[in-house]
Write a structure and sequence with these properties.
Its cofactor is Mg(2+). This is 3-methyl-2-oxobutanoate hydroxymethyltransferase. The protein is an alpha/beta fold. It is 37% helix and 13% strand. The protein contains 11 helices and 8 strands.
């Protein structure tokens, strides 16, 4: 028994402050754990991951949900948008993450072109992400018009996270990266969320939506919600890890908070490495056989 667990001595009148109730830590986060978090008023964290090392680190840090996002297109592969990434590439990224992470729920994005043509195509694509990639669920961008697709996936035994508000795959149709749901269009975001919940989505992610609209969505649906640029009323929050850790340079979106400066740390390490190679001080005797 540790000192923190020792009872107060008899006759001292000492008392220990009431501690917050400890929530049991499941071996693997499942969709029902997120639902339980909403029911109990608890919040959870979600980050993107695309490789084994970040997956391991975020797992060890206690991140509940890892999103293998199509954002790998413009954060790993060098594309300007998310549109070019293929299903084959998403399967590879998902496999890297699922092979390394033990506890988080792993959600894989359905990339552009992999689900819009038909519900059959959506099921086929999702099966690959689960069967070959090792994902536990898929995320699908779009509003009420994709309710039938969500139903088909759920019937096939595939958990679906809905994604409403700003949907990056539709950036050309939406006129660029613009906040969705302002003014009279806020009702549409709520209706989309309700339709996708009714179709069987286990969670609703909202991107770049006014905080007051996101709060109304969270109150309207029974499933947990996740926000990115959607205020603080959602059950969970998600960020692209390169934004969160300060790896990506340039101007950051308003909703991003950097929790580290990984870019400068990595640049410093690379600079010192190059200097030691050029000077001949690396490798030294201790690094040689």
């Amino acid at each position: 028994m540790t000192s923190a667990e020792m009872p107060a001595p008899y006759g001292t009148g000492a008392s220990t402050p009431e501690e917050p109730r400890q929530v049991p830590r499941p071996a693997r986060i499942r969709t029902h754990h997120l639902q339980q978090a909403k029911a109990e008023g608890r919040r959870f964290a979600m980050l993107t991951a695309y490789d084994q090392y970040t997956a391991q680190i975020f797992d060890e840090a206690g991140i509940e949900v890892l999103l293998v996002g199509d954002s790998a297109a413009n954060n790993v592969l060098g594309h300007a948008t998310t549109l070019p990434i293929t299903l084959n590439e998403m399967v590879l990224f998902t496999r890297a993450v699922s092979s390394a992470a033990r506890r988080p729920l792993i959600v894989a994005d359905l990339p552009f072109g992999s689900y819009e043509v038909s519900t059959a195509r959506a099921v086929e694509s999702s099966v690959r992400l689960l069967k070959e990639g090792g994902a536990h669920a898929v995320k699908l961008e779009g509003g009420a018009q994709f309710a039938d697709t969500v139903r088909a996936l759920v019937r096939a035994g595939i958990p679906v996270m809905a994604h409403v508000g700003f949907t990056p795959q539709s950036e050309h149709a939406l006129g660029g990266y613009r906040v969705q749901g302002r003014g009279d269009t806020g009702r549409r975001v709520i209706d989309d969320a309700l339709a996708l919940e009714a179709a069987g989505a286990f969670c609703v992610l909202m991107e770049m939506v006014p905080a007051e609209v996101a709060a109304k969505v969270d109150a309207a649906v029974q499933v947990p919600t996740i926000g990115i640029g959607a205020g603080a009323s959602t059950t969970g929050q998600v960020l692209v890890w390169q934004d969160m850790a300060g790896l990506r340079g340039g101007k950051q979106p308003k909703f991003v908070k950097q929790f580290a400066e990984v870019r400068s740390v990595l640049a410093d390490a690379a600079t010192r490495y190059a200097e030691e190679v050029r000077s001949g001080s690396f490798p030294g005797p201790e690094h040689s056989f």
